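New to this. Look over this protein:
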Amino acid sequence: MSIGAEQAAKLEALHLAASEIANATTTEEVYQTAVDTGEDVLGFDVCGVFVADDGELRPVAQNDTSVTLETYPDDKGALGETYQTQESFLIEDAADDEVSEPSDDSFASGVSVPLGDIGVLQAISTEPAYYDETDVELAELLAVHIREAVARIRSKRDLRESKRKIERLHRVATSLESVTDRGTLLWAAVEAASDILEFDWCLLAREDDGVFRVEAASEETPLDTGDEMFATDEGVAGHVVETGESFVVDDAHDHPVANPAHESFRSGLVVPVGDAGVFAAVDDRVGMFDEQDMELAELLAASVGEAYDRIEAREQLRRRQAELDLLKEVQSRVLRHNLRNDLNVIGGAAAEAREADPERRADLLDTVERTAERLAATSERVREIKRVVDHADRIRTFEVAETVRTVTEGLDESHPDATLVTDVPDGVTVRAHSDFPLAVRCLVENGIEHDDGVPRVEVSATRSGDRVRLQVRDDGPGIPDHEVEPIERDRETDLEHGSGAGLWLVRWVVDRSDGSLHFPDTDDGTTVLVELPGPE
């Protein structure tokens, strides 16, 4: 611009006033100093600062308090046009200007200059053509000083606030070290996110059978605990778990990866929690999260992830100890009851055989042989149970029809009087513990060996969604309640029925396979239903 003596003097005075604006300690002080500078230094008639606030431009400072400056929508009039376009406007005659829409008919001319995301600086006069392009340039220089001062104050404020939040998050992390259950941990995390990080809508979700499921959510969040979000290979959450990297989404509607779990979600951040979980903060407005929000969320998520892993390790240790205690109890019951009874039978038969005639002696020796074989089978079954308990990670894929066929063919040879009927379609596969064939054999053998008549055992399998249902049904006397109930309650009692050890083996194989074991009520015989996961 061409600088005359008057303009040079204004520039010099503006330079001196800039230091006063820069030394302001609050945004309110910046705004008031700026409008006073506009009047005293630049000769502006009426000068005001309008701050953007929830869709409006609200006056926060003015040099002439006798003039009423009104709040405007941020898309209306010269104020709105300036804010939306971030361009300066010179209005020489408001009466002829298409966009000015002055709040007072006495306002005849003005200068409107953007302040970035802060709002608008505006100078107004009751005289037409009061301002010119030089005034626009001077106002723009004043606006630069306003923006820089506000940015510095906000930066200091944000730094103090960030430090305060980090200190509070550290205290939360320390408190989480004493948490011993997942429920308390999850709610403590959500509460910290709401209270400390000021995330009104936030949640923790975790992979569950191929989908993300909400584990905990703040009260305001449109999703509830237990809600299914989307598949684990979809959306930003899927990307975060896959890559282990956090993500900020400014507008979910225009994002190529985002797949909002609720129609109201527009912006958000997602950070990983451990290996299979995420923390998410969301909002129904665009662009509500930044890198600093993400970094603070990562600090919280790291503490939650460590506590989650610690609790999971403790629970695994408790489960392992409970399994070993139960295994010890099962072994003890078998040795104390089944083995004791069988040894009594062998001892009694052997003693009687010494005095028996040849024909009776042969029968007694057959009894000794059968009982010894049963005793060896029971001992082998206990050894097999221990193997299943000790090796929980032996998971593989089985073709059910082939497995059942192999089992029944072997039992056809050893039990030629039994009728074995199968109804298992080809192509049905399951993911199960490596001893799945042994579990199937135990169920079929149970139906054969405890039928006093001519045994008939039916084996069938069907798909049910992503699960496979294997059913084994016999027409025998049924399994006594006192043997079924402890298996369902995780506690052993006297194994008075020879099927007891076998049922425990089935139970542990099914548990290790992430399946379920049921004993439906039937009018006659026994029906055992096993549900297992299908292929991945």
Remarks:
- The two ends are 71 Å apart (CA to CA).
